[in-house]
Design brief:
Blueprint: E1 4-5, E2 11-12, H1 22-44, H2 48-78, E3 83-84, H3 86-97, H4 104-116, H5 131-135, H6 145-153, H7 157-160, H8 163-170, H9 172-192, H10 196-219, H11 240-245, H12 252-257, H13 268-271, H14 275-285, E4 289-290, E5 294-295, H15 297-313, E6 326-327, H16 337-354, H17 356-371
Antiparallel strand pairs: 1-2, 3-4, 5-6
Helix pairs in contact: 1-10, 1-17, 2-3, 2-4, 2-9, 2-10, 2-17, 9-10
Bound molecules: zinc ion (2 copies).
């Protein structure tokens, strides 16, 4: 395969030699069809009170899944940006399993290759292959030969050393059936009184569909639209739409510049919406999370200035000294009452924006309810 150099400095595009994964394609067709059917059931076939109950279950299960992905597979296991005690690791593993986004081991392997070779042939969801490919299309293909080559060069011993990851990997399918399907379906059935099939389409399929797209936008939108204040030479961008939909994961230019920051953002939750960072800080209060890693404010400022200069002189960046500039976590900062109110309001609004899909469904439901 020929790797073509683009106008900047990245090789692109490994379209060839990748087998289509028909099982994934068929599953995604079924998933979206049943999700649309679930929306139809919600809007046209049930009273408002039952609709609200379904929305509560979908949102609750969706949020739990987000904690498993963002606080677990991403910040804890992929990046080792903090450490967690056993109860928290078990909780995050179960939350992660209910999202049906592969095992933590595979998720982290893909993600580490994504970071080290972002937007090249080896990147599993290379954004230079187009918006659709980076969003969901990459799942319809086997990984590129370049991906497998690079994956072999990385060390995943730290992941394999964690008994929680090994346990999830070994019992993935039974755990998946319980956490992804049975628990949400029966919880919906118990709380709403709807049939198991209705709950399967809403609490399992629709929830899964929405949750997947919330994850995917980090790979697609946040690699294409937004600002690049920390490193203008890379594709990942800070995007507030993604920040809200992915519970604080949209500071993506920052995150690719400082991937080992446990808050995946410069300001944590004290100044910007970052509910997962608030969760990790909360866990840290009880000792469940510890060794929270974060660069000092001076180092971030220095890195930003250096990044701006890069545009002119095209110097390579050098992060060799980054680990020597860690500060303690932001939990120790004094916030003040007024700021706390602002933060709470921001997070409440952020959580509403996060459920925009469900809010739109509710708006449609109200329209239908009013005119019927
Ligand atoms: Zn990325
Ligand atoms: Zn990452």
């Amino acid at each position: 395969m020929v790797a073509v150099a683009d106008e900047k400095h990245f090789p692109i595009v490994g379209k060839q030699q990748q087998r289509l994964l028909w099982s994934y394609i068929i599953y995604f067709i079924i998933l979206h069809t049943l999700s649309i059917y679930g929306c139809y059931l919600l809007i046209f076939t049930m009273p408002l009170s039952i609709f609200i109950r379904h929305i509560i279950v979908v949102d609750l299960m969706g949020k739990l899944g987000s904690f498993g992905i963002v606080a677990g597979a991403h910040r804890l296991w992929s990046h080792r940006s903090y450490r967690a005690r056993l109860p928290l690791r078990i909780f995050l593993m179960l939350c992660h399993t209910m999202t049906f986004e592969l095992s933590i081991l595979k998720w982290s392997q893909l993600h580490r290759v994504h970071h080290k070779w972002s937007d090249t042939d080896a990147d599993p969801h290379n954004s230079r292959r187009g918006f659709f490919y980076s969003h969901v299309g990459w799942l319809f293909f086997d990984q590129s030969p370049e991906y497998y080559e690079k994956e072999k060069t990385l060390n995943f011993d730290d992941l394999l050393a964690d008994p929680i990851i090994r346990f999830q990997d070994q019992f993935y399918w039974p755990l998946l059936v319980i956490t992804w399907a049975i628990v949400p379906m029966y919880l919906g059935h118990w709380y709403t009184g709807s049939s198991l099939f209705v709950c399967f389409t809403i609490e399992v399929m629709l929830r899964h569909c929405l949750a997947l797209h919330h994850t995917f936008i980090v790979n697609s939108i946040a690699h294409k639209y937004g600002s690049r204040p920390y490193d203008p030479k890379i594709e990942p961008r800070d995007n507030y739409f993604v920040v809200y939909l992915a519970l604080g994961e949209g500071y993506h230019n920052y995150h690719h510049t400082f991937p080992w920051d446990y808050s995946a953002s410069e300001h944590g939750w004290q100044k910007t919406f970052n509910i997962i960072t608030a969760f990790i800080d909360f866990c840290a209060l009880f000792g469940l999370a510890y060794d929270l890693r974060k660069p000092s404010a001076e180092f971030i400022a220095k890195r930003s200035e250096k990044a701006l200069k890069m545009i002119d002189n095209n110097n390579d960046d050098d992060d060799d000294d980054q680990h020597s500039t860690l500060s303690t976590s932001s939990t120790s900062k004094n916030i003040g009452f007024y700021n706390l109110i602002i933060i709470l309001l921001d997070n409440l609004i952020g959580l509403m924006i996060n459920t925009i899909g469900l809010v739109l469904l509710a708006a449609l439901k109200i329209v239908v309810f009013y005119y019927s």
